[in-house]
């Protein structure tokens, strides 16, 4: 009997699919009744729990049927069908029995979309001028209860499958559905939603970034930045999005915002420094760093950057003073020690070159050698410090220590360094 019924409604559907423009009003009325009968057949099939798939087949056809695709009842039945399909799969997930995860989430999306369509049709006044909230009354609360499953789906795609496209779409639906009249009415009463909406925004932002879709990055990144845990990371992602889009003005603006809001995060500061350096905007860079020192005189990196600028200008005295300030503020800043030691060695060379006209046998030249030695003695502890800080980076301290030990006639240390450099292929 069930098989006969199914074949009957299928036949009715074929009749209803004829082009309405070729039919008379009487024929159209007949086709409409036939299509409506098929909708009711789907409803009857749903009433029989064993016929959910049959109900789905019928109602899928009805939602495309031109005679009932704008009939609210069609979508009401479809909502019930897809809610059943979704909940059956969801129950299996809680029971730990095998189920189609992706299929379950697809049922959920379909259910939501159908309910929203049904609700919109029910808001159209009928011939009596009345509207209905039947569908939202039936499904609204369940949609609200299951809303966070879009987050679960997004995380599944993101973490387990590395499918960032579908991950983003799931997170995106979480936010889009939240703005619909049905969900909004519930979520406005949920004090936790605003908090979760901020926390979860990190994921679509990261998914879009992993896809290299920088326009989509910008969609939720401002909300994600509000999260104290991920704010700095998302500010970096936002800046990088503008950088990748070649929008220099917004890139620099967001780096500046990062400096202000996340002063301990070196990323923003370093990126701006690199920008000024790469574009050779030396005056702007110096003004920027000077301003940063005025705002935060304890930030070691500010002094380091000034040191680099002055070193590039061959003003080694001023450079050395700034490097000295940098290591005073941060005794672990290895690059500052490296450059400070180098400045002392440059100053030694400059002094010797400036006095090269002095007779090397004279007492005055002996004084020159003493001054040179003093500079090398000042450089020595700098590179010994670097050796302790970066023991595996021999190239950053080995050649310099070898030269210093040699200049200071420290034969034992020179021999040790020679052995190290040969082992590293640096000598």
Provide an overview of this structure.
- This protein is mostly helical.
- Helix content is 76%, strand content 0%.
- It has helices at 2-16, 25-47, 52-62, 72-95, 101-122, 134-146, 149-160, 164-178, 181-187, 193-200, 202-211, 214-225, 231-244, 248-261, 266-278, 282-295, 300-312, 316-329, 334-354, 363-389, 398-407, 411-423.
- Helix 8 runs antiparallel to helix 11 and helix 14 packs antiparallel against helix 15.
- The longest helix is centred in the C-terminal third of the chain and has 27 residues, at 363-389.
- Residues 1-18 have low confidence and may be disordered.
Beta strands, count: 0
Q: How many distinct helices?
A: 22
Assess the beta-strand content as a share of residues: under 5%
- Spans of at least 5 consecutive residues whose pLDDT stays below 50 are 1-18
| N-C termini distance | 93 Å
Decide which structural class fits the backbone.
mainly alpha
Q: What is the C-alpha radius of gyration, as a whole number of Å?
A: 37 Å
Q: What characteristic shape results from the CA principal axes? A: elongated
Helix content: over 70%
Query: How would you characterize the largest beta sheet?
Result: none
Q: Give the H and E element order.
A: HHHHHHHHHHHHHHHHHHHHHH
Mean pLDDT level: 91
